[in-house]
Amino acid sequence: MTLQQLRYVIETVNCGSINEAAKKLFITQPSLSNAIKELENELKIKIFLRTSKGIILSTEGAEFLSYARQIIEQAELLENRYMHTKLSPQHFSVSTQHYAFAVSAFVRLVKEFGQDEYEFTLRETKTYEIIDDVKHLRSEIGILYLNEFNAQVLRKFLREGNLTFTELFRAKPHIFISAQNPLARKEYVTLADLEPYPCLSFEQGERNSFHFSEEILSTLSHQKSIHVSDRATLFNLLIGLNGYTISTGVISHDLNGNQIVAIPLKLEEEITVGYITHKNVTLSRLAEIYIHALKETIEEERRAI
């Protein structure tokens, strides 16, 4: 086993494809495939499973990857210290539901810990894709919520993906609305108060089950309903159409200004927001830093509510 082979595995995971990894490594696809096969034969494990849609990490491969990343990181630190070589670009990926605090924490990570070269990815995406990204290690961390309605279904997917859910905070439901909306002057709102206004939610694509919705009360019907795919569009519609969406009440005024406000929704519900990780993978230093940034950001923004 060589450091080069470990680098090959890491780059293949980062690219999600042997062909793409070979291009980045400036070697041929057969050479990369043979190097990985030789490593698998030496270790007597299958690092990658070959499928009709390409390659995915096996359970053993996920565990191997966490060790490989640690070894390469330490090797690069040694090379940099004693041979004055350049550190490789840092890599980190997170997949999340559409939470401003996740973006704020990402900004903090990049500002404080990004070196001269880095390749970070922030995916604001659909609930099922968050689970799938972490399951197949396209992202180290996924951020989503559980509640009484969706927990049984989502926890089943987490178990099948060998994933762990760690709680970040619990919140009572709030609505996000324009600061100019007539409801913005109320101490709290009820479902009846919301009936005249458009309900905005994030579409979930092929996995459009109520259990994958980013908003609670997904089974309720609305006279006016709009589905969007990104947070900027949703916020524009909150302002332009006096619409509303249901969320945690945690909002970043640093990123979003004061045009959007959070008002408590009078309901006996609770939302548990947390992050998911792969059970067989030791988190990288950047992942640990991001989780710390998440906790600090959430604490600061909840104090500001």
Describe it.
The strands form 4 sheets. The protein has a 5-stranded mixed beta sheet, sandwiched between helices. The chain has a 3-stranded antiparallel beta sheet with strand order 10-7-11. Strands 1-2 form a two-stranded antiparallel ribbon. By secondary structure, the protein is α/β, with parallel strands linked by helices. The radius of gyration is 22 Å and the shape is elongated. The longest helix has 24 residues, at 59-82. The protein is built from 11 helices and 12 strands. 43% of the residues lie in helices and 22% in strands. The protein folds into 2 domains: 1-88, Arc Repressor Mutant, subunit A (Orthogonal Bundle), CATH 1.10.10.10; 90-305, D-Maltodextrin-Binding Protein, domain 2 (3-Layer(aba) Sandwich), CATH 3.40.190.290. Helix 1 packs across helix 4 (59-82).
Summarize this structure briefly.
The chain is α/β, with parallel strands linked by helices.
Features:
305 residues; three-stranded antiparallel sheet; 12 strands; alpha/beta; D-Maltodextrin-Binding Protein, domain 2; five-stranded mixed sheet; Arc Repressor Mutant, subunit A; 2 domains
The radius of gyration computed from the alpha-carbon positions, rounded to a whole number of angstroms, is 22 Å
Q: Please provide the count of β strands.
A: 12
Q: How far from one another are the termini?
A: 53 Å
Shape: elongated
Unreliable stretches:
none
Number of domains: 2
Helix content: 40-55%
| The CATH architecture of the largest domain | 3-Layer(aba) Sandwich
Individual helix count: 11
Structural class: alpha/beta
